[in-house]
Design the sequence.
């Protein structure tokens, strides 16, 4: 039986937009999608604001019953205690976050997060009922030395060590060289790695989990190129950085089906 995967468009705001700007943005995004009669069966939408915005986004989403999901950009591998500056998955769950980004390349490179840290964070997310949006991807050097799939596949295996992926998982393939560079991977490259990641998911978690897990592409996604990625059979959406801060651009990306006639 073929499993259908609802496309997923996720906006990673990084360290942009304060809580007042977040309220305005989410409200306008909801209006824009409602105006365009967006069918959320065509694409689920989530935003990942800074931690300080999440309470405001929760209040707006719940008061207006908006069909927009949200989550944290990171979480602590610990549940509570003397971990200054860290945020527990328990707190994100209390704010009705559905998702949490884990292992973004900026966390791995700027904050020295290892595969073991990423693995512990995936487990922490599951302990609190959050769905990890697990980022994997190779640097330009990795690409030259090992090809496109080797590093993302190794990162996926490490992140899922001792994890029941059936508890909920989204994988985001984000080649580091494509993030914020304006130079996206080709759809064929994204498909090749997404297929390799899905095969590994099958090996680790079984065919059913592999078939139902959404695998996103991330790295310089724009309204102009989103349709080409979504035409690939193993690419189920996008993790969008820079373009997620531009309301019209992000709204167009979400509406990739109608907007670009995919
Ligand atoms: C990201 O940071 O996850 C990302 C994909 O950024 P951008 O879309 O700006 O390349």
Sequence:
């Amino acid at each position: 039986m073929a499993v259908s995967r609802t496309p997923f468009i996720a906006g990673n705001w990084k360290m942009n937009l304060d809580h007042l700007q977040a309220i305005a943005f989410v409200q306008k995004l909801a209006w824009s999608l409602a105006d365009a009669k967006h069918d959320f069966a065509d694409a689920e939408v989530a935003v990942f604001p800074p931690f300080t915005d999440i309470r405001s986004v929760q209040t707006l989403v719940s008061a207006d019953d908006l069909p927009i999901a949200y989550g944290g950009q990171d979480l602590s591998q610990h549940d509570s205690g003397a971990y200054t500056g860290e945020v527990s998955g328990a707190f994100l769950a209390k704010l009705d976050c559905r998702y949490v980004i884990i292992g973004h390349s900026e966390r791995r490179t700027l904050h020295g997060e290892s595969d073991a840290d990423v693995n512990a964070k995936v487990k922490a997310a599951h302990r609190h009922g959050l769905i990890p949006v697990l980022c994997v991807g190779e640097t330009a050097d990795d690409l030259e030395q090992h090809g496109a799939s080797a590093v993302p596949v190794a990162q996926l295996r490490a992140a899922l060590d001792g994890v029941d992926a059936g508890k909920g998982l989204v994988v985001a393939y984000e080649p580091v060289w494509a993030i914020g560079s304006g130079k996206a991977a080709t759809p064929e490259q994204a498909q090749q790695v997404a297929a390799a990641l899905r095969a590994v998911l099958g090996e680790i978690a079984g065919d059913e989990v592999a078939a139902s897990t959404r695998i996103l592409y991330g790295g310089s996604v724009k309204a102009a190129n989103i349709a080409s990625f979504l035409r690939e059979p193993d690419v189920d959406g996008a993790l969008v950085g820079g373009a997620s801060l531009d309301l019209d651009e992000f709204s167009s990306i979400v509406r990739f089906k109608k907007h670009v006639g995919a």
